[in-house]
Structures are given as structure tokens and as C-alpha cells.
Amino acid sequence: MSVELRSLDRCFHGIVPSIISTCDKQGEPNVTYLSQIHYLDERHVALSCQFFNKTRRNVEENPYATIVFYDPVSFEAWRLCVRFDHAETSGALFDTMAIRIQVIASHTGMAGVFRLISADVYEVLSLERLDGFLQPPEPGAAPAAVPSGGPLTELRGLQAITERIARATDLETLLGGTLTTLDELLGFSHSMLLVHDEASGKLVKIAGRGYEAGGIGAEVPIGAGLIGTVAQRRRMLRVTGMRQDLSYGRAIRERVAACGDGARLVPEIPLPGLPDAQAQMALPLFAGERLVGVLAVESPNPLCFDEWDEAFLQIVANQIAAGIDRMQSDDEAPESETAPRPPSATSAPATGRRRTFVFYKNDDCIFVDDEYLVRNVPGKILWKLLRIQREEGRVEFSNRELRLDPWLGLPPHKDNLESRLILLRKRLVEKCPDLRLLPVSRGRFKLEMACTPELVER
Fold first, then answer.
1. How far apart are CA 446 and CA 385, in angstroms?
2. What residues contact 130, with CB distance under 8 A and at least 6 apart?
């Protein structure tokens, strides 16, 4: 072949649906769309098989097929002549192809229904461009723009990120500075970081960049969507052409419901992120074997991410994970500096409007003036602070005293306390700016009030 198959990487992203044609042993043809083509090497590709359909029956009788696929930028059409070789139902290839389908299935509420049956491997017999598919360019047309940047730009961005992580004195500065650098220096304009809350078994968003206000505290169940699947499978995943995949998945969902199998379906899970994302990438964060969280980036441009971004962001993810682990291990000053303050370190009488805080003991949830504020451990932390302020008048607290309180239910090791405090601070800024948690020193903070709190426990 005069053109290397690997040079057509954009064609394998699934942005423009590909077409496969087969025929049975009597010569009756069948043409259908493909949901996924996976490049293996110059002589082999793999196709996803999700249903026992006509295509699969045909290639078992007659192993030859023709695939037409398209470049989403140049719109060139290419034709592959292939021969069915074998099907794989387990192993690395199967897992790689299955995880993408698992993401779409979880998004559309079809986990266990919409799944990969096999990864079908085909031998490539020939590759040719379909001439005449496109008209020639107009005389004098400007050539395609060459993208700016490159390895040097990204290396400098990586240098800036590692410096910010190394110099950060608290977790909030570390995360905010990292996401800002990814945006301003490297063009990752939409990013978020979620931490793993072992108590609830969910991922909780504590930092984001490029999104509208709100969303902090959003929870993603392990196994749900791209982010939850990456956490469950503990491996990086890049998905492009999300709009087409979701449309295909929802069409299958409608068909399943129409066939009377709707009881197997669950509601679609709304997840944080761009509503029009076309490219998404998520990377798990590890400290040793322990899952710390997930870094996720996305873009409305389906060709925004490539293999270079995968390798680059994996380095960033490793740095973030190490930074989070360091903050969790060393987020307090020496014990002599964290001893309880004398009784004189109390607050002045609260002023400002009265606000009612209601704590629901059954699910550790706090509402302020009948509006949801926060839940779980951050909710219990806030309730503890408000009660101490009311009963003792004290407004300064330490991370150590929170860790020693068995009522909060923090795990004995790697408790993510700092990330829980970040979530609480941001939820207060969004929903109750009359209360603020302000740092005093390493491992110490104070509660600043511009309202008179009324506490109700139910």
C-alpha cells in the first residue's frame, strides 16, 4: 500500500461513521454502519461486535468484507478490503474496546444491555483512496493552517505545572494553579478534578476550570460515564465523537424499550461537564495502589486530543496525585502550633441577618433557609463548627481536632480531609457567602460569620 494505515489516525476516531459491506455465501449483500474501528497494526484492524447481527453471520460464511471510512478534516474517503481472521472475547484488545462501549452504556442507562460481545480482528488486504469523492480545491485556495505550539511549548507548560505543584502550600492552591496552567499555557480550557470519597464510594468534584459557576460537590458514582468508568477500570481513556456515540446508544435504548425490554433499562445519569462535549479524556490519579481521584478534560472540538495529549496529561496526573498525597500527609503545622487556642480566642457576637441551618441526621445533610447546602462528611464538619461556635464562642479550629473526632467518621489513614474542606468552602461561597472558612496557618482555619445562625437538628 502506498499510504500507511497508521497515517490515517483521524479516521479511527469515529467522528464520521464508517460503513462495512458483507455478503453471505449466496452473494446477498448487507451494508451497515460501524460503531468502532480500532487500528492494530498495518495489516490488522478490529471491529466492535455488539449484537449477533447479519454482518457477523455473513463473515462466518464468507470472511471477506469492504470498509469505507472518512477523514473528518479533509473528508477524503478510503476503502479497506479485509478478511475476517478471529474474534476475541477477553484480553487487552477486548478490554480496550469494551471500555468505550461501557462509557456510552452507562451514560444512556444501558449498562449490561449495550455491551461488547467480541472484538473481531480482520486482516487488511488492500487500502485505497476513493478518487472522485471530493472535488479538487479552487485555484488559489489557501493551504490548511499549521497548528502552533509543539513540544517546546508543552514542555514549558509542564515546567510551570510542576513548579506550581511543588510550591503549593495547600491543596486548593495546588489544584487551582494546575488547572489554570493547563488552560492558559496549554489550551485545556475545560478541566475538572474529582477526588475519591471512600466512605460514599463516589467521586466528588472539588475543582474545575472553564465551566459556569456551580457544580462543585457534584458526585459521580464509580462506573458511571467516562469519569466513573476510568475510576472503576483504573485506566486512562480518551473518547472522541461523543455525539454520534450517544445518539447511537439512545437509538438502541429506544429499540430495547420498544421491544418490551424496558425493565432492564435505568434512567440516564446526568454527569458534570459540557453538554456539547465531542472529545473527552479522563485519567485516574494514584498514590501507590490507592485511587486518589480522576483528572478529566473535554472539548467541543472532536479532534482536540491525540496520543501526545495522553502521554503529556499522564505526567501531569502523576504529579497531581503525588501533590495530593503530600498534602494529605503534611497539611498541619507541628503539634505545638496546633494546640487549642485559649478561651479568649472567641468570636464577637454574630451580626447580620438571621439564617436557619437545618441538619438532617439520617443522611448528614444541611439546608440553609430551605435550600440544600452540603452533605456527608463536609456537612458534619460544618455542623460541628457551628455548634462549637454557638456553645463555646470559638471560631478557630485545626485539622487535627477534626481528625480526632470519631463522630465525623473519617478513615484513620488518608482521610481526604483537606479536599472535604475545599468542597465545604466552595459550597459556602456558592450558597451561603455569609459564612466563610479562612486559613489561619498550615492546618488551621477560622469560621467568619456575617449572619446570625439559627441551628435546627432533625
1. 9
2. 68, 76, 77, 78, 79
The whole-number pLDDT of residue 339 equals: 45
- The band of 112, judged by pLDDT with boundaries at 50, 70 and 90, is low
Its sign, for the CA torsion 448, 454, 455, 458, is negative
- pLDDT for the residue 366: 95
CA angle 111, 116, 121 (to 5 degrees): 165
Put residue 150 in one of left, alpha, beta given phi > 0 → left and psi -120 to 50 → alpha.
left
Sign of CA dihedral 28, 29, 34, 36: positive
Report the SS3 class of residue 430.
helix
Output the nine-digit C-alpha cell for 190: 475545560
Domain ranges of the chain: 5-129, 152-256+272-329, 335-457
Torsion, Cα 48 49 54 58, to 10 degrees, reads 70
| CATH of range 152-256+272-329; options 3.30.450.40, 3.40.50.620, 2.60.120.10, 3.55.40.20 | 3.30.450.40
**Exposed, middle or buried: residue 162 (CB in 10 Å: 0-12, 13-18, 19+)?**
middle
Bigger pLDDT: 223 vs 53? 223
* 5-129: CATH class: mainly beta
**For the structural domain made of 335-457, what CATH number should be given?**
1.10.10.10
Residue 295 corresponds to which amino acid? L
Residue range 289-341, pLDDT digits in tens? 899 999 999 999 888 888 888 888 999 999 999 988 888 765 555 544 444 44
Once rounded to an integer, what is the mean pLDDT over residues 273-294? 89
What H or E segment, with its residue span, contains residue 58?
helix 54-61
- Residue (of 428, 406, 430, 402) closest to 417 by Cα position: 402
Q: Which residue spans within 185-257 are E strands per DSSP?
A: 191-197, 202-209, 219-221, 237-240
Beta strands 354-360 and 452-457 are parallel
Is residue 453 exposed (0-12), middle (13-18) or buried (19+ Cβ within 10 Å)? buried
Instruction: Show the beta-strand stretches assigned E in 142-201.
Output: 191-197
pTM for the full model?
Answer: 0.76
Burial class (CB in 10 A: 0-12, 13-18, 19+), 165: buried
Cα(206)–Cα(134) distance, rounded to whole angstroms?
Answer: 48
Residue 404 DSSP SS3: coil
- HEC profile of 340-359: CCCCCCECCCCCCCEEEEEE
CB 244 within 8 A of CB 193: no
Residue 32 predicted with pLDDT over 70: yes
